[in-house]
Structures are given as structure tokens and as C-alpha cells.
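Hey, resending since the last one bounced:
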Amino acid sequence: MTVVGRDRRERHIEIPGRGELVLAWAVRTDTGRKRTANEDSAVVGFPVFAVADGMGGHAAGDRASAIVVERLGRERGAAFLDLRRLERAIVEAAHEIDELGDATPSGMGTTLTGAALVVDDGEPVFAVFNIGDSRVYRFEGNELVQLTVDHSVVQELVDAGSISRAEAERHPEANVITRAIGFHDDPDPDVWAVPARPGLRLLMCSDGLTKEVGDDRIRLHLAAGMPPGETAAALVDAALAAGGRDNVTVVVVDVLDLRDTSDTRGPR
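The C-alpha cells again:
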């Protein structure tokens, strides 16, 4: 597994003409109790935070997820990211994965989910993106909302009313996804806009968390008020305690403040 970036307890980001955005974030990952290799990867550090869950066997899955987070990691350093740059980075990662996958018997690919900081009409916004069945949740005002929609066979069955969400977790095709980066699929992310307001907490995770820990328990951990590092570690521990059948990776991003640093009072 590959992690690009590191935890930050507080980071200030200048917004041209608007003020200062203050973020904190953390990432935690574990191989789990049943797997021998960790095929998850993650990138953290403005302007992009993401989790990738690799597929195609130990070496192939690990390499596929690493390729996409390493490519996104090259966008770090600037305060904000243009959506066209994000899309180009994903496409370039897909091409590299396809080239390597041609030499792999089972092919290789990865999910990708995350959030990129962008500026929309002068305001800071998280562009939440998703390909596959890893997820992004928003926790705000004590309410947990799943922002992303799984690209999976069972999600299509849920949407059609054929099975319930509870039945989806136990369905024999629960691990079959309908979109990925790799396998010569054209990367086609869904994108949502989420204002970067103080008090917002974003959770990004591989399905090693969500297949073990229900939304109610996830909400309790996010509501506990612990810093991102302790929260991410507690969520990983909860997945392991529930069985840890898969690799589990968690990224937590907090918006601590949005300060207007401009002084328009003029001379007295």
C-alpha cells in the first residue's frame, strides 16, 4: 500500500480576496485480519484527499492504487485544484494502469474516491469525486450523509428496488463493481460540490470500513469530537473488531475555520 502525504493537525490556506481556510486531516490504514497484503492507497494534503482500493491480485492491486494516488499527489502544493487538472490526472493514471495491466494475467484496476479543494465564485468548495465502491461521507450538524453512490451491481439492485441496503451487504455479488480506473475502462467519475464550511467533517474510506461498520456506528465516531487522527484510528479499529475481512483505509478531513482576513475598515 502507498500513502502520499502525512497528517496535519492544522493547516492555513489563503483564499485570494476571501480570507483564510483552516483544515486538519489524517489517514489510517490496516491490512485487516484476513488479507496478507494491503492493496489500498491514499493521498492527503491540499488540494486533494483520496482513497483508492486496488484490484487484480496482491501485486497488481497494490500497484494500481499506488499509481493513481501518486499521480494525484503530484498536484499537491497549490492551494486549490482546477477540475480539468483533476480529470487529466485521473486519465493519465488510467493509461499507466492499462499499460501495466496488459502484462498482468488478471488485469489491474482500482477504485478512487476523494475530495479536491476548488474555488467557485470566490468561495472554497470540495469537489467530491468517485469511481467504484469506496465512499465519501459528510458529517455536519450531527448528521451523517453518504455523498457518493457506489458503482456496483448491488447498488443497481438497490436502486431498482430488488433488494434492500441490508441485503446488499450479504449479496453474493457484493464485491462486483461497475466502474473502475483500469481494465481499459474510460474513467468516468461522479462529482458533487460541497461548500467548505467551518464544522464540516469529510470521511473517505475503502469498503473495508463500510462492509464491517454500519452508518450509525460511523456517525457516533465522527460525532465524538476527537481530532482527525484519533477518529480515523478508532474507525479502523472498529472495522478490525467487527471482523476485518478486507483492507481498511480511512481519511478524515476537518474544516476548522474560514476567516475573513481582509481589513476594510479604513483609517480612523
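The radius of gyration is 18 Å.

Sorry for the duplicate.
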